[in-house]
Task: structure prediction
Amino acid sequence: MVAVGSLYKVWADLPEDIEELNYLMKNFRDYFGWDWSEVMAGAEEPFDYHKDWDGYIAIKDLKKCSGLMVADLHAENVYKIILG
Result:
């Protein structure tokens, strides 16, 4: 499936001392303004799943794009980002 949307915000300067999920969730809310459980893909995963991530991104206006393939994303101002 391919989806398109607009990059809204990037959080790459995470605190060094994240040792528990509640601390990560609070900082996430402070940065993005949304509750972790409402917007995070994989929010139900344990802390060990998330603790070593280097950053988070927020995409707005995300929608599925039928008929569009990843290879079609070649326009000059399109950033090719694959999320899994």
In short: Strands lie at 3-11, 56-64.
